[in-house]
């Protein structure tokens, strides 16, 4: 069995989950579920990034210990993943002992390789971004004050710091991007990163002096390891590295894909491979930087008051409805838009009117006119077989789309088949055939029910609970719900009992 490892970025614990966190973990879950259904052994990791000055300051403001805040916030992210029906195999917290050991060891390996030295840092630092910036990278606000590229405040810092010799890896990184142009996706992100590295790399500060809430630098307790060395190491600490003989590490590393937001591409596509080169560890196969979910064209922020709470959206619209909208609406890798109106229109059109109406009309007829049994197949016409063959013909295209993480294209392809099945059902008019040609009525109903089975199997990664309910109605066995079973030879058996249909996708009403 082929192994597949996907990770999200770990979420920072200075605040609760927001739409960006939900979007990323849903996308990772769709990819993980898709690969499982395609016969791969998957390891899907998400988690929380718990150290650093932001968490320490937030805890101080709340008059609690940083570990208490980190624990409380981590539980909200764990709850979010569960509420979104995500199938992650592990949830890593950077305050865990397994992680601290890995961070300590990767530091020592980089140090042994001569890539860490103690120096003096003078420059701009953003607490919110947890990033050091050169002055050329900064912007100015309306008050003529420097701000970070992400529009956050920066402060001038003068302190002793340990540095990593990032400058040693400029040529090696450029060689990586040249030999493996798929390492960073989408391609536009690769071009940005390549240009950044070509402009010359400076050594980077990798510690903060006097920071209490962090993992201490080996043999120097005055310094804590800077958040990015700490955070990025989660991808291997969750595999029980530094035990390189561990089955989990041997099976799943290097990661197939680190799924991240576009604002942290540099840390994953420059710093992380450089750290791994230094430590003598294989680099991941791919970094995919997705876009942001905007609220009516604007980036969501507290100051604008336009942040959408994913938990509230689940309560208002449903889990699968939210999952479907976020994955279907936007080309994966680009920015996407959210509004209640967009979600309601998309869900009502695609799920209620197309897939929901198709399944309800067909299964209600089967229940009423076929004694709640799979209809008799009888002899099929060319129009029947052409429809039945569609998914088998298209499945290789769909697999290729998902190899390239074109999630919305895969969904669109399946829903094109939903539309064609709806057209077939309307054209064949089984409600008229019941009066004059029962054999043909049965054949049309059998073909339509069989297409519902195939479509439900293919859409499970996106809408796991809704597709489960559809497949449960058809009494499809649990071990016959992988992509292998869309073929005609695994079709529904005539005369087999099915359950009474229920409405899977009720229409969402606008709230005034």
What does it look like?
There is one protein chain. The protein is of the alpha/beta class and 512 residues long. The protein has a domain at 340-490: Isoleucyl-tRNA Synthetase, Domain 1 (Orthogonal Bundle). The chain is built from 18 helices and 19 strands. Helix 14 (382-403) runs parallel beside helix 17 (438-459). The longest helix has 30 residues, at 340-369. The chain is elongated, with a radius of gyration of 26 Å. The two termini are 52 Å apart.
Task: Please identify which CATH superfamily of one domain we are dealing with.
Answer: Isoleucyl-tRNA Synthetase, Domain 1
The total count of strands amounts to 19
User: What is the overall silhouette?
Assistant: elongated
Give a short account of the largest sheet: 7 strands, parallel
State which percent range the strand residues make up. 15-25%
CATH topology of one domain: Isoleucyl-tRNA Synthetase, Domain 1
Q: What's the multimeric state? A: single chain
Structural class: alpha/beta
Helical residue percent band: 40-55%
Question: How many helices does DSSP assign?
Answer: 18
On the 0 to 100 scale, the average pLDDT is: 94
Distance between the termini: 52 Å
The CATH architecture term of one domain is: Orthogonal Bundle
Cα radius of gyration in angstroms: 26 Å
- Report the CATH C-level class of one domain: Mainly Alpha
List unreliable stretches of 5+ residues.
none
């Amino acid at each position: 069995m082929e192994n597949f490892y996907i990770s999200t970025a770990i979420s920072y614990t200075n605040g609760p989950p927001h739409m960006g966190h939900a979007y990323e973990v849903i996308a990772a879950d769709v990819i993980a579920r898709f690969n499982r259904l395609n016969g791969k052994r998957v390891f899907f990791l998400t988690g929380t990034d718990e150290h650093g000055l932001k968490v320490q300051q937030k805890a101080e403001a709340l008059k609690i210990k940083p570990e208490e805040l980190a624990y409380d916030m981590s539980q909200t992210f764990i709850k979010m993943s569960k509420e979104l029906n995500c199938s992650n195999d592990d949830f890593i917290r950077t305050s865990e002992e397994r992680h601290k050991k890995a961070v300590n060891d990767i530091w020592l390996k980089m140090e042994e390789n001569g890539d860490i030295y103690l120096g003096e840092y003078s420059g701009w630092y953003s607490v919110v971004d947890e990033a050091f910036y050169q002055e050329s990278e900064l912007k100015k606000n309306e008050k003529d004050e420097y701000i970070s590229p992400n529009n956050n405040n920066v402060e001038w810092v003068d302190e002793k710091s340990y540095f990593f010799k990032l400058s040693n890896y400029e040529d090696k990184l450029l060689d990586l991007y040249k030999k493996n142009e798929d390492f960073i996706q989408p391609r536009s992100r690769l071009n940005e990163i390549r240009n950044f590295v070509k402009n010359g790399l400076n050594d980077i500060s990798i510690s903060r002096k006097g920071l209490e809430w962090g993992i201490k630098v080996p043999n120097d307790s005055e310094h804590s390891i800077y958040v990015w060395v700490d955070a990025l190491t989660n991808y291997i600490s969750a595999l029980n590295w530094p035990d390189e003989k561990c089955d989990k590490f041997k099976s799943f590393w290097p990661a197939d894909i680190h799924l991240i937001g576009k604002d942290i591409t540099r840390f994953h596509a420059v710093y992380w491979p450089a750290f791994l080169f230094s430590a003598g560890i294989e680099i991941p196969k791919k970094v995919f930087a997705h876009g942001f979910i905007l609220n009516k064209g604007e980036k969501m922020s507290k100051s604008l008051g336009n942040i959408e709470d994913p938990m509230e959206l689940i309560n208002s619209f449903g889990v699968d409805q939210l999952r479907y909208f976020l994955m279907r609406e936007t080309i994966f890798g680009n920015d996407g838009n959210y509004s209640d109106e967009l979600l309601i229109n998309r869900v009502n059109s695609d799920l209620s009117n197309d897939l929901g109406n198709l399944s309800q009309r067909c299964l209600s007829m089967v229940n009423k006119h076929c004694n709640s049994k799979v209809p008799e197949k009888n002899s099929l016409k060319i129009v029947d077989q052409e429809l039945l063959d569609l998914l088998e013909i298209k499945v290789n295209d769909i697999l290729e789309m998902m190899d390239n993480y074109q999630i919305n294209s895969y969904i669109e392809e399946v829903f094109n088949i939903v539309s064609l099945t709806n057209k077939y059902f309307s054209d064949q008019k089984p409600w008229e055939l019941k009066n004059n040609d029962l054999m043909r009525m049965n054949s049309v109903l059998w073909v339509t029910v069989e297409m519902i089975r195939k479509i439900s199997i293919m859409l499970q990664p996106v809408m796991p609970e809704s597709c489960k309910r559809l497949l449960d109605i058809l009494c499809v066995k649990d071990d016959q719900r992988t992509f292998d079973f869309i073929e005609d030879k695994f079709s529904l058996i005539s005369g087999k009992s099915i359950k009474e249909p229920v409405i899977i996708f009720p229409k969402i009403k606008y709230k005034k």
